[in-house]
């Protein structure tokens, strides 16, 4: 019911409300209004649970819809101009004087305008007003929270084995992505859900990766600079610049805040055999380990590894260190980030002795699994290979670097905060 209604909502792009409300609010505005029309809402105070409850008959059904909101949350989220600054969509209520035991003195439901009005029992007799649809989109039901988290906050990821990755991999025309917001949106959605996408028909100049990154937000700078050039070079500060086998890895695990996504523009591809990319969905592997090898999974999520990078670039010396597990879980226990790099794993392994051998065994299993599920793909000149660096594990097969057989890639990173931000702005325009 909820989802069907959500799908049928119409976005009012030119609505004047849009300027004053957060985009997410505006989006659901029309949905709730259509739902509530002709439905009488009953508002009541539940003193025992310290909540206000709004109940209404669900249209064309015998069931009752009940929304419950704690007093304290309602008071905290008052939308009057003393408590909320509209153009910045920010709370400005003075929390130094906030009373968490605040209670309503009177409530009133305005049926005509679908507004809940509350007079509070504080000294000033503060009055708050809330539109029904604004409340409804924030209701605390499990269903509502799931929609927000998996649709709006961060779209759910689809985990891919090797075969799935080959079938689901989507291609996007560079010029369309640059010129058309819908195409940009589709590319970002593909990158978020699959962790990989390819841009085609990219002009063969060294600046296109920057143009593409700027289309989203801005390049994430690291101690290697902004754009980086991947071509064989002697005396290199990074093994990625050797033509030998580049073992499967994630980039820059030695950054606490590792770069979110890689953009690798292939300007010149080796004509000889070799130089194929290897790509594995690390989240798929971690999920498989959780189900099939729970002990090894636990070890890789608990044992802290020192990831390091020591060197210099343009005469600037660096010594980066980040202590984190190979499989990082988020606050809710979901797989959040993979760290894996043989060269960038420090010989300082500062864990209890008893953990060391077990950890190595779990690592060996992980490496076996990622190579078994690696999609092999030689990128074509004029394409940008885009992938989620917190999720995809990538490598490259060796090739013979000679005068007549060069390989030239320009890379850049984007951060997930910026990718998601851009995605949400576009989602508010396009998603139905
Ligand atoms: Zn207020």
TrEMBL record:
InterPro entries to which the protein is assigned, alphabetical: AlphaKG_dependent_hydroxylases (IPR050411), GBBH-like_N (IPR010376), GBBH-like_N_sf (IPR038492), TauD-like_sf (IPR042098), TauD/TfdA-like (IPR003819)
Keyword Metal-binding in record: yes
Domain TauD/TfdA-like span(s) in chain numbering: 171-413
Superkingdom as given in the UniProt entry: Eukaryota
Cofactor(s) in the UniProt record: L-ascorbate; Fe(2+)
Stretches assigned to the Gamma-butyrobetaine hydroxylase-like N-terminal domain: 65-135
GO biological process: carnitine biosynthetic process
GO cellular component labels: mitochondrion
Pathway: Amine and polyamine biosynthesis; carnitine biosynthesis
Keyword Coiled coil: no
Keywords, alphabetical: Carnitine biosynthesis, Dioxygenase, Iron, Metal-binding, Oxidoreductase
UniProt GO molecular function: 2-oxoglutarate-dependent dioxygenase activity; metal ion binding
Family: Belongs to the gamma-BBH/TMLD family.
Protein name: Gamma-butyrobetaine dioxygenase
């Amino acid at each position: 019911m909820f989802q069907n209604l959500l799908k049928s909502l119409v976005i009012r792009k030119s609505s004047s409300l849009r300027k004053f409300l957060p985009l997410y609010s505006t989006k659901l505005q029309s949905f709730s209004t259509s739902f509530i029309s002709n439905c009488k809402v009953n508002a009541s105070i539940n003193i025992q649970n310290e909540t206000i409850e709004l109940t209404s008959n669900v249209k064309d059904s015998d069931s009752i819809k009940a929304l419950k909101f704690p007093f304290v949350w309602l008071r905290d989220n008052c939308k009057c101009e003393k408590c909320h600054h509209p153009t910045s969509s920010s709370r400005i209520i003075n929390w130094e004087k906030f009373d968490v035991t605040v209670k309503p003195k009177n409530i009133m439901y305005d049926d005509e305008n679908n507004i809940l009005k509350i007079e509070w029992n504080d000294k000033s007799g503060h009055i708050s007003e809330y539109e029904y649809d604004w409340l409804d989109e924030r209701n605390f039901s499990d269903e509502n929270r799931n929609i927000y988290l998996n649709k709006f906050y961060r779209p759910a990821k689809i985990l891919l084995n090797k075969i799935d990755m080959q079938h689901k991999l989507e291609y996007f025309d560079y010029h369309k992505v640059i010129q058309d917001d819908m195409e940009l949106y589709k590319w970002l959605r593909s990158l978020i859900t699959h962790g990989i996408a390819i841009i085609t028909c990219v002009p063969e100049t060294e600046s296109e990766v920057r143009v593409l990154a700027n289309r989203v937000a801005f390049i994430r700078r690291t101690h290697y600079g902004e754009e980086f050039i991947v071509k064989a070079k002697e005396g290199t500060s990074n093994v990625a610049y050797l033509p030998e086998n580049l073992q499967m890895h994630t980039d820059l695990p030695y950054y606490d805040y590792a770069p979110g996504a890689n953009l690798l523009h292939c300007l010149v591809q080796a004509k000889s055999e070799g130089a194929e990319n290897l790509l594995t969905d690390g989240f798929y592997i971690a999920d498989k380990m959780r189900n099939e090898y729970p002990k090894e999974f636990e070890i890789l999520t608990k044992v802290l590894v020192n990831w390091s990078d020591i060197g210099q670039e343009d005469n600037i010396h660096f010594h980066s260190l980040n202590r984190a597990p190979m499989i990082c879980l988020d606050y809710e226990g979901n797989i959040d980030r993979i760290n894996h790099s043989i060269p960038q794993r420090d010989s300082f392994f500062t864990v209890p002795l008893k953990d060391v051998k077990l950890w190595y065994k779990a690592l060996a299993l992980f490496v076996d699994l990622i190579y078994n599920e690696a999609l092999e793909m030689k990128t074509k000149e004029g394409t940008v290979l885009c992938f989620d660096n917190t999720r995809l594990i990538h490598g490259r097969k060796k090739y013979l670097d000679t005068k007549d057989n060069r390989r030239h890639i320009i890379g850049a990173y984007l951060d997930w905060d910026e990718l998601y931000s851009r995605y949400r702005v576009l989602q508010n325009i396009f998603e139905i």
